[in-house]
Each structure stands twice: as structure tokens, then as C-alpha cells.
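Priority: medium. Attachment 1 of 2:
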């Protein structure tokens, strides 16, 4: 009997901010109704799952990660029945829906926090959050949003105590030592699973528990609670995905992926190395990172983002050397680096100085490596950003659909828009938008569509094992993905110069080789197999005989 793979293994995940995606009721704010009407686009593109950033009631001081009601929908986005309609329509399009689950904290306007501050000390109500008379407790826990906050403690006049917050001061941390908190949050998980969601992106998982003398990250009690979340979801829908956000090197994020804990985690270290590789035009550090990643956890359980709604993390000085970080920053237009708390606050295209070859190459790599490739909405177009907007809003502007007013995002008058659409030179929505790019055969959008269509035909890229090959070129990375009898060879040139190099393919000596994306036969595999890749070029080759039907499907993409 063939082993059934989980739906999420190798699935293409598309992150979108519902407020910025599509406005269905012309009030200037994207909503669930608007998003539902965009599902055919997402299906056309080849997306398999959408991840919605928080959709819950919130004062929106932190993009909705400051929640006031975990079991409802923000009224500007719709209501629970609009969510139900979205979910049904997505499933009809064969698209899974993942929602953000913010376990660590609430908004300070959440009724639990309001109740806590008025409750007497020592009561279970007060103990929903972490309080102290001494703001020096947990002194070794770093302040994460250091641009905005100078301490993890905030004085509350009503409670006459300090409360703990790892993020903004308006986001008090829940107290997981309190069994009632655990009970409530497990009920939240159950609530959304019963509504039919296909998984959760677990926000800020390392920070659930605190312990004196530690950085308060990834403590054993945190893992114990996450295992309870896993048990709870397995009892309701064992196909649901639990995907961890832990912004750490892979060896520190890996413990969340114990068999009885979470299914997947973002590999932010790999993201950092992808940017470093393209900034330096060399591949060795990326290759080392991939070797380590494979040792830590073979298989396809990492989610692979390039950019997301946050800053680009480059490893706090421990991962990517400072001179490379500086070269990524200084390469940016408008000079001033755009550093926020711990990373660069720009979208993908401007980070790559608008070079579509580099955009394609980085996406080609995440489409080829083991794991779940994550596309951040708009990056499939090479959309730009608006540096200078508040906090991380630069990267969260409206999706560009057409050349019409507001990029077709909303029919509302301009001042009502949630954020301004992009009109920056080179990125103007009148050019960089879905409708225009669909009509241009050579556009980035049509390239993504082609890649994802081709990838679907090559299960080795989704489930295959991963083997690195040596090449004699410092700017190149070569690897194979093999699954059952299918072998796909991948080569990418991270440098701005063309690359000609030799590969030893003696293990497949005499096998047929066919470049699969554009349909071109190469010489049979041999010990001295020569390849040329143009600047930022890459290729996928099918190795060995392939069935006629697969060949025909691939050739007719
Ligand atoms: C991680 C989210 O990605 C980020 O946007 C948010 O500000 C923090 N968690 C706090 O919830």
C-alpha cells in the first residue's frame, strides 16, 4: 500500500493580509468577501493553501496581532458567516485555509485583561496575565520590539503592579502557568478547527512560559503546552497543520518539530542565507546551511518564506556576517537601510533592487528545496513597498489587481483606503498588477504560474529526498530531489555573472537528461557533464526515462 502523504508536505502556501487584499464592500478595507472573489486567481496561480494574518476583533495597533476576541471576526472584515462562505469556497477551489493563532498575548483591551487588572491580587482572574511588583524579574529576556519598547514590563495604575509583555506594551502576555488560560486557549483551537480551518500558523511560539534566569524562550513547559495543542487538534482533525513561527536558527526551531508536537516551522535561517547568497553572489554558506538543516531534520517539514509581513531577519549577527548584512542594507535604494527592530523592513522586490532575475531565482529555489514554499502576496508580481509608513506597514500595502484607480483593490475614495497603493517609480500599480501581467507572456506572474504548474507535475520536488552535488563554481548550487523513480536535478547560479561548470553525474551515467521548464534535451548524463547558467539562471532537469504522458504534460505547460 502506498504511504499517504499529509496535504501540507511541499504545499505552496500564500500569505495574505485580508485588510490589504481585496475590498468587497467599497469601504477602503480589504475583507473576506473581497478575498473570496479572488480565489479563482489563487487557484489559477497554483496556490494550495492561504494563510490569513489575524482576522479577529482588534484595535489594530499591531496589525491584528493584538486580539480582543479570539472567537470572532473583525467587523471590518466580515463576520463568522462570511468566514464560513470563504472557507467553503476555498475548499471548492481545492485551497486549504490556515489562520493565525496568537497564543502568547492579547490586546490590553481584551476583556480578560480588563478583568485581570481590576481583580484582586492572587485571584485566578488577575493571574490570567503575568504580574510583578518588581520590573526586574526575567531580566534576561530580551526586549524584542526594541525600537518601540525599552522594557518587557509596564506599570498598570489600576492593578498597582507591572505586567509582562514580550512585544508591545499594549500586548500583555498570557500566563500559561494558570490552567484556566490553557483551557481557554485550547478551546480557541477547538473553535476554529470545528469551523473547518485546515491549520494554524502559531505566532511567537517560543514565548509562552517564563522562568527566572533564562531568556524565557522555548522552555520545556512551552513544549509541553504545544504538545497539548497537538493532542487537541489530533482529536478533532488529524489533517490540520500546526506551523510554528520561531525566529531562530534551525537547530533552535527544530525542537518544536518533535513527532508529538508541531508539524512544521518556518526556516528563517534559510531565508537569511538565501538573501546573503544573492548579495555576495556565492553559494557556500547557503550550501552549509542546507547541509546543517538536513542533519537537524531531514524531510519536508520546513516552511520556506522569502518575505512576510514582518522585517527580514538576518540572524542577529550570528548567522549572516555583519559585512554581508551591511551590503544587503546598503544596496537598497534611498540609502537609509530601513532597519526596524531586528531586520530590514522592505518587500522582496526593492530588497533585490527591482531585479526580476533575482526575484525569479530566489523563488525558484524555494520551489525546489524540500519544504513548503511560502509566497507573500504581491511578491508574485514583484510589487513594491512604501518605506516610511508606520511600523511594518511599508510591506503591507494593498494588492495591485488592475491599472484602475487604487489598483483595483477598492472602489472607495482614496482617503478611506487602509493603506496607500504603490505608485513609486518602477513599481506603480498601473504597470505592476495582476491584469497587466497576465497579458504579458514574459511577466513575473506568468513565470510563477508556469513554475507552479510544472512543479505540480514533479512530485519529486514536493516529497523527494535531497542530495547536494559538488560543482566547481563558487556561485552555483546544485542538488537533486528524488522520489520513487523520479529524479530532478536542480542548478542555480547566485551570481550576477554567467556560470559555466562541470558536474559529475556518473551515478546516472548514460541516463537521458531533459531540461524540463522550457523543454530541451541535454547530453546524456556522464562523469563530465557541462552546464552553462546565465546570470541568476537556474534549471530543472528530469533525469532518466519519463513516461510519455508526463513528458507531454510538461512540454505543453
Ligand atoms: C509575530 C508577528 O508576525 C508580528 O507581526 C507580530 O507583531 C508579533 N508576532 C507579535 O504578535
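Attachment 2 of 2:
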Amino acid at each position: 500500500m502506498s504511504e499517504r502523504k499529509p496535504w501540507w508536505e511541499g504545499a505552496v502556501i500564500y500569505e495574505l493580509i485580508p485588510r490589504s487584499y481585496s475590498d468587497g464592500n467599497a469601504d477602503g478595507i480589504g475583507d473576506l468577501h473581497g478575498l473570496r472573489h479572488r480565489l479563482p486567481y489563487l487557484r489559477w496561480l497554483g496556490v494550495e493553501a492561504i494563510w490569513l494574518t489575524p482576522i479577529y476583533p482588534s484595535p489594530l495597533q499591531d496589525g491584528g496581532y493584538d486580539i480582543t476576541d479570539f472567537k470572532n471576526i473583525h467587523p471590518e472584515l466580515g463576520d463568522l458567516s462570511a468566514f464560513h462562505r470563504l472557507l467553503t469556497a476555498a475548499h471548492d477551489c481545492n485551497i486549504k485555509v490556515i489562520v493565525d493563532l496568537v497564543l502568547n498575548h492579547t490586546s490590553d483591551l481584551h476583556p480578560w485583561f480588563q478583568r485581570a487588572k481590576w481583580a484582586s491580587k492572587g485571584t485566578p482572574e488577575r493571574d490570567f496575565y503575568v504580574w510583578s511588583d518588581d520590573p526586574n524579574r526575567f531580566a534576561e529576556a530580551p526586549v524584542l520590539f526594541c525600537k518601540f519598547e525599552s522594557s518587557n514590563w509596564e506599570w498598570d495604575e489600576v492593578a498597582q503592579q507591572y505586567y509582562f509583555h514580550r512585544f508591545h506594551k499594549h500586548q500583555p502576555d498570557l500566563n500559561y502557568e494558570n490552567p484556566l488560560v490553557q483551557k481557554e486557549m485550547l478551546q480557541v483551537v477547538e473553535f476554529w478547527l470545528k469551523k473547518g480551518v485546515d491549520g494554524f500558523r502559531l505566532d511567537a511560539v517560543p514565548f509562552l512560559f517564563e522562568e527566572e534566569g533564562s531568556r524565557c524562550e522555548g522552555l520545556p513547559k512551552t513544549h509541553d503546552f504545544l504538545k497539548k495543542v497537538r493532542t487537541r487538534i489530533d482529536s478533532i482533525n488529524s489533517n490540520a497543520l500546526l506551523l510554528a513561527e520561531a525566529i531562530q536558527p534551525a537547530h533552535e526551531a527544530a525542537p518544536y518539530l518533535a513527532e508529538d508536537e508541531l508539524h512544521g516551522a518556518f526556516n528563517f535561517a534559510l531565508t537569511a542565507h538565501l538573501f546573503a547568497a544573492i548579495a555576495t553572489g556565492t553559494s557556500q554558506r547557503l550550501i552549509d546551511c542546507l547541509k546543517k538543516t538536513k542533519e537537524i531534520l531531514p524531510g519536508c517539514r520546513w516552511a520556506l518564506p522569502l518575505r512576510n509581513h514582518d522585517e527580514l531577519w538576518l540572524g542577529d549577527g550570528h548567522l549572516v556576517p555583519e559585512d554581508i548584512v551591511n551590503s544587503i542594507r546598503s544596496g537598497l535604494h534611498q540609502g537609509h537601510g530601513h532597519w526596524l527592530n531586528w531586520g530590514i523592513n522592505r518587500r522582496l522586490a526593492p530588497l533585490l533592487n527591482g531585479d526580476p532575475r533575482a526575484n525569479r531565482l530566489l523563488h525558484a529555489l524555494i520551489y525546489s528545496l524540500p519544504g513548503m514554499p511560502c509566497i507573500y502576496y504581491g511578491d508574485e508580481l514583484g510589487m513594491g513597498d512604501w518605506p516610511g509608513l508606520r511600523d511594518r506597514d511599508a510591506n503591507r500595502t494593498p494588492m495591485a489587481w488592475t491599472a484602475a484607480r487604487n489598483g483595483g483593490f477598492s472602489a472607495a475614495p482614496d482617503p478611506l483606503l487602509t493603506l496607500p497603493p504603490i505608485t513609486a517609480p518602477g513599481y506603480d500599480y498601473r504597470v505592476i498588477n495582476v491584469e497587466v501581467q497576465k497579458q504579458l507572456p514574459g511577466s513575473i506572474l506568468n513565470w510563477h504560474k508556469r513554475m507552479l504548474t510544472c512543479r505540480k507535475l514533479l512530485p519529486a520536488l514536493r516529497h523527494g529526498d535531497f542530495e547536494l552535488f559538488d560543482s566547481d563554481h563558487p556561485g552555483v548550487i546544485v542538488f537533486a530531489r528524488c522520489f520513487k523513480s523520479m529524479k530532478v536535478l536542480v542548478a542555480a547560479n547566485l551570481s550576477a555573472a554567467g556560470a559555466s561548470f562541470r558536474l559529475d553525474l556518473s551515478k546516472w551515467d548514460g541516463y537521458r537528461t531533459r531540461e524540463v521548464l522550457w523543454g530541451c534535451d541535454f547530453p546524456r548524463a556522464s562523469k563530465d557533464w557541462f552546464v552553462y547558467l546565465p546570470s541568476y539562471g537556474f534549471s530543472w532537469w528530469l533525469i532518466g526515462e519519463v513516461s510519455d504522458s508526463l513528458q507531454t504534460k510538461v512540454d505543453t505547460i
